[in-house]
From TrEMBL:
<keyword id="KW-0645">Protease</keyword>
<dbReference type="InterPro" id="IPR050659">
    <property type="entry name" value="Peptidase_M24B"/>
</dbReference>
<keyword id="KW-0031">Aminopeptidase</keyword>
<feature type="domain" description="Peptidase M24">
    <location>
        <begin position="154"/>
        <end position="356"/>
    </location>
</feature>
<feature type="domain" description="Creatinase N-terminal">
    <location>
        <begin position="12"/>
        <end position="146"/>
    </location>
</feature>
<dbReference type="Pfam" id="PF00557">
    <property type="entry name" value="Peptidase_M24"/>
</dbReference>
<dbReference type="InterPro" id="IPR000994">
    <property type="entry name" value="Pept_M24"/>
</dbReference>
<dbReference type="InterPro" id="IPR029149">
    <property type="entry name" value="Creatin/AminoP/Spt16_N"/>
</dbReference>
<dbReference type="Pfam" id="PF01321">
    <property type="entry name" value="Creatinase_N"/>
</dbReference>
<dbReference type="InterPro" id="IPR036005">
    <property type="entry name" value="Creatinase/aminopeptidase-like"/>
</dbReference>
<protein>
    <submittedName>
        <fullName>Aminopeptidase P family protein</fullName>
    </submittedName>
</protein>
<dbReference type="GO" id="GO:0004177">
    <property type="term" value="F:aminopeptidase activity"/>
</dbReference>
<keyword id="KW-0378">Hydrolase</keyword>
<dbReference type="InterPro" id="IPR000587">
    <property type="entry name" value="Creatinase_N"/>
</dbReference>
Amino acid sequence: MNGADDAEQELRYSRVRAAMAENGLDLLLAYGPGWRRENIRYLTDARVTGSAALVLVPAAGEPSAFSVRPADLGVIAQRGWVTDVVRLDFPASTVLVERLRDLAPSRIGVAHLELLPQAIADAIAAGAPGAEVVSATGLLDDARMVKSDWELAQMRRSAAVCAAGWQKFVDVLEPGLPEYRIVAEVEAELKRLGAEDNFMLIASGGDEVMGMTPPGPRLLEEGDMVRTELTPQMNGYWLQICRSAVVGRASDAQRRSFDLFNEAVEAGLSVVRPGITAHEVAVAENDVFRKYGYGEYCTARYTRVRGHGHGLHLDETPIIEGNHTVLPERAVFIVHPNTYTPIAGYHVLGDPVVVTATGYEVLIETERVLFETPQGVAA
C-alpha cells in the first residue's frame, strides 16, 4: 500500500505543533502501547508492532522515535518521516532520559499519559526533573479527528472492503454452519483484498441473544438472525459496517426490530452536521427507542455506545449521551444504535459517515436492509 506523501506529513506536524503552542507545550511525547498505536502511526506513517513505542516531538526541530522492538526501527526509518530512530531500553529507558536532558523541556504533554508504564514515567521525571507533565491525549485525538483528503481516500478504500466483507458474510450463511467458519470466510476475503487486520464480533440465534462476542462453535439454524460488526483496516485506517441477516425468511418480529433500528439510524444521521456533538447524535438515536417504549434498552445495562469515531484507531470518540465532544467537518464516525430489545433480541445496524460542510456522506454503498439468505428471499 502507498504511504502518505510529504504534504500529508507537513499537514500533520503543523497541526500538532499548532496545538502544542496553544497548550503551552515545548515537547510532545506520544506513547503507544501494543494495543493503541494510532498516534505512533499518525506521526511516523509506519506500522509498528512492538509492545511499546514513543514519538518525541519538540516545538522546533526534528522528531525522534523509539521502540522496544528492533524490527520497528528499520520500518520507521525506511518510511522517512522520522529519521532519528532509537531502540527503547525498557524498563531503564536511559536513552529517553538522555534525550530529555538534552532538550530540557519545561512543559511536556504525553499522549496516552493515562496508559504510561511507571518505568517510562520515572524516566521522564529523571530526564526533565523540573518539567510539568500533562496529558496530551485529547490534543492528538482532536488532531486526528479532522481527516485530510489523503486519509479520506484510505477510508473510502476501507469502505469498499467493508462492503465486500459483508457480501461474503451473507453468501456463506446456511443452516449447520458454525459461527467460526463465517468469520474465517470473511477474514480470508478481507485479507485477499489487502486488509491489514479486521476487528469482528458476531452473534447468532433468536430473541434470546443479548450481545455479540468472538465467534464460537454454535451451528446456525433456520430462522436465526446473524449479527456482526465487521471492521477491516486498510493502510492503517479502520472502518466498520454493522448489519444483521436472517438464515432463510425473516419473521415479523425480526422485521419490526429492523424497522425500529433503521428509524434510529435515520434519526442519528438526520442531525449530523459540522459542530454537532456526540451527545446530540446519541440523543437523536435514543429518542426513537424512548418514543416506542424501549428507552431502558439504551442504558448501560444493555448497550455500550450509539456509535464511535473511526480512523487510525477503530473505536475513537464514543457516540454516547453525556459526551459533548464536537464533531467537526471531516470527522468520520459510525452511527449504530446496536442494543438488545425483546422484539427480536440484539440487533446490529449502522453506517459510517464523514461530516461534510452541509451535513454528511455515507461512506458505504451496502443497502441498509434486513438481509435474508437466498432461500428466504425466494420463499
